[in-house]
Amino acid sequence: MKEYVRFLWRCFRLSFVGDWRYQTWMLVLTVFALFGLNAYAKQLVHGLQVTGMTDQVSWGMYIANFTYLVGMAAAAVMLVIPVYVYKNKELHDLVIFGELLAVASIVMCLLFVVVDLGAPDKAHHLMMRMNFPQSMLAWDVIVLNGYLLLNLHICGYLVYCAYRRRTPSKAFYIPFVFVAIVWAISIHTVTAFLLVGLGARHFWNSAILAPRFLASAFAAGPAFLIVTLQIVRHFTRYRVPDKALRTLKSIVVVALAINFFLLIAEVFTDFYAGSTHIGSIQYLFFGIGEATALVPWIWSAVVMNAIALLILLSPAGNRMRWMNVACVLLVVGIWIEKGMGLIIPAFVPTPLGEVVEYTPTLNETLVCLGIWAFGLMLYTIFVRITIPVLSGELTFDREYSLEGPNENPQILTSGEAEA
Q1: Which residues have C-beta within 8 Å of that of residue 258, sequence separation ≥ 6?
Q2: Is the pLDDT of residue 28 over 90?
Q3: What residues pair up with 291 in beta bridges, in sequence order?
Q4: Per residue in 243-300, pLDDT tens?
Q5: Which domain holds residue 379?
Q6: pLDDT > 70: what percent of the chain?
Q7: Residue 58's domain is classified under what CATH number?
Q8: Which among 28, 113, 323, 367 is least surrounded, fewest beta carbons within 10 Å?
Q9: What is the pLDDT of residues 363-392, one digit of tens each?
Q10: Are 188 and 70 in contact (CB under 8 A)?
Q11: pLDDT in tens, 138-164
Q12: Phi and psi (nearest 5°) for 120?
């Protein structure tokens, strides 16, 4: 326990150390996080009236970001499956980066749920009356918190074993890895069922909503990891093999193609057959009268995703620069499609036929940016701590300079390490 506390203390100190680029990045994130905290303080005082949500559109950017980030968290399984099921050694060490992304994403998910509550001080009433197992919301609370604990255990155990230079005990983490695979799929499926179960919102009453959730998640999550690993490889001495990035690229291509197919199938069914929620999907893609707020957004998302898929399928997609461009387009495109393009149209028009558009306010946007900044700060700190441990520069018997990694680090004896 004493050595573990010492490990946490050394990681805490290390999180403040970096070159000017690291310091600038963390400063920018801190500023945005503080602006978001100030905006949330205003919301606590004045209530949800400071947001763009109304009686007609009761879910906005908060839940839109929540649904997107649940997918980002579930995408960690796309690294776990090749490594532990198909024995892909190139991705072995990179699994930790996917698990760390899952932890940061779930933390952001929970924060978006909290800010969406009009009175968070009354949240304990929800926990006391979860109506389990009938309520899908109760299932969502369980799977999200359970997935967070699973990933914290897996990441913490593997990183600490690397710090102590010990071989991890398979009995202590492999069972949790396979549970996490099933759990990752369940968190997104349960979130999709949470929407599908609302019968009054015809836009969500589709059997392929859950598969669309999973396909978009397994495209956007690995794409974000590709960009992250490229940054790690460029600015640190940690080596990320090209073969590992190309394996992730293959996962992204397949998932994105499936997501496109499911989107086309749903659009065809709604417009050709004239289903019950034709009004919502018409509003999304073409607008209703003068209500066209989401039209440029959804078509931008479709174009970005199409360009990303074409790049990744072409020979140019094998070049790291173009792969990065495609991944950035994909991450943004999926955010629009699965966020604002999925949540808002279900409320427009209302079951009574009213067309009331939703426009997020500045205060609402600042809260969202603040949560994203806090989540990215967490992920940056996790990666900053993990890289020296995995590379052997920070271990229990190795002195690590707070000014940066030593070229010739001093190896300590066990007694000196304890001191």
Answers
A1: 211, 215
A2: yes
A3: 288
A4: 888 888 888 999 999 998 998 888 888 888 766 568 888 888 998 888 888 999 999 9
A5: 2-418
A6: 88
A7: 1.20.1630.10
A8: 28
A9: 999 999 999 999 999 999 998 888 888 877
A10: yes
A11: 777 888 888 888 888 888 888 888 888
A12: -60, -20
Q: How far is CA 179 from CA 170, 213, 317, in A?
A: 14, 20, 34
Distances (CA, A) of 316 to 225, 240, 311, 322, 334: 19, 20, 6, 6, 22
Determine if the pTM surpasses 0.90.
Answer: no
Q: How many domains does the chain have?
A: 1
CA–CA separation, 397 vs 380, rounded Å? 25
CA distance 374 to 388: 22
